[in-house]
Specification:
Low-confidence stretches: 289-299
Structural class: alpha/beta
Distance between the termini: 39 Å
Shape: elongated
Radius of gyration: 20 Å
Helix content: 25-40%
């Protein structure tokens, strides 16, 4: 399958030193046009040049380093699908920890969650261990959490940008369908895959039923969705923060570590350490003037 490639090389400077890096890059890269671009709560400096990507990569690497967390070259191939983790990515926090806090077992569950997200524990075993601690919790807690779910900044704005650009979105979560399915619908996502808690007589039994959405399952569902949409995995991107996101991030064209654990930052294609989710669109080269990104100045 031939993938549509972009005719220009686009660089996005997004670290705290973006102004100085952009000016230094303009001295190294021929015909680099730079402009500031405002996002939801921050800004980036975008640079566009007709100089070939490989030459730009070499020049920037030699002059200002690999750029991790400071600048990126946006994907050479147009992105047509973005897959998102949920907990600590779209949502500010871990839903299972929120449930546990309501049920009075927050400290025990949070400790296991942290170890699992850092890749220190088997995900399936750690999920079952944590869910078992929720046995007896009234299911109404799930509704309370859904109604007060804290999204990370720019979540709705990012989805609007992606969908306006014709980019499909999906959710692949180690969280729970009672919370994720309504959120996916509200965000206008194409697909949603997450775990299902067993509920009997309005009470959590402490068990997960059906498929467990671990790292392997996340990768499989992303690849299946690519096939359903008729696109190549190289035209997809994945955004996540935990170790169980690495397989799906490695199976697509671009993996973005969003305020992620060290092991994820070290292995992702791009590292984003800023709460503003609209930066995801900028790093992927999605969202231009016609989508509401207006340059406020030219450098």
């Amino acid at each position: 399958m031939n993938q549509p490639t972009r005719p220009q090389t686009r660089i996005v400077f997004y670290g705290s030193d973006r102004d100085s890096l952009a000016k230094l890059a303009s001295q190294q890269v021929n015909n680099l046009y730079l402009n500031h671009r405002k996002l939801a709560s921050t800004s980036v400096i975008e640079g566009v040049t007709t100089q070939v990507r490989s030459d730009v990569t070499k020049l920037l690497s030699n002059s200002i380093g690999d750029g991790r967390g400071r600048y990126v070259l946006t994907p050479a191939t147009a992105v047509r699908l973005v897959a998102f983790d949920v907990d600590s990515t779209l949502v500010n926090g871990e839903v299972i920890d929120m449930i546990a806090a309501h049920w009075g077992v927050g400290a025990q569950v949070a400790a296991v969650t942290q170890a699992a997200m850092e890749g220190q524990l088997d995900f399936n075993a750690s999920l079952r261990e944590r869910v078992a601690l929720l046995a007896g919790c009234p299911a109404t807690v799930l509704t309370t959490i859904h109604d007060t779910l804290p999204l990370n900044p720019g979540a709705y704005e990012l989805m609007a940008i992606l969908h306006t650009a014709g980019v499909a979105t999906m959710m692949v979560s180690g969280g729970f369908s009672t919370v994720t399915a309504p959120l996916a619908k509200a965000l206008g996502m194409t697909a949603c895959f997450s775990n299902q808690l067993e509920i009997i007589d309005g009470t959590l039994t402490g068990k997960v039923i059906g498929e467990i959405i671990n790292g392997e399952a996340k990768r499989a569902h992303v690849l299946e969705t690519c096939q359903t949409l008729g696109i190549s995995p190289g035209e997809a991107a994945a955004v996540g923060d935990g170790a169980n996101d690495l397989l799906m991030m490695g199976s697509v064209g671009t993996g973005i570590a969003y305020n992620a654990k060290p092991v994820v930052q070290a292995n992702a294609d791009m590292a984003l350490n800023d709460p503003d989710l609209t930066l995801v669109a900028a790093l992927l080269g999605i969202g231009d003037e016609e989508l509401g990104y207006k340059p406020d100045s030219v450098i």
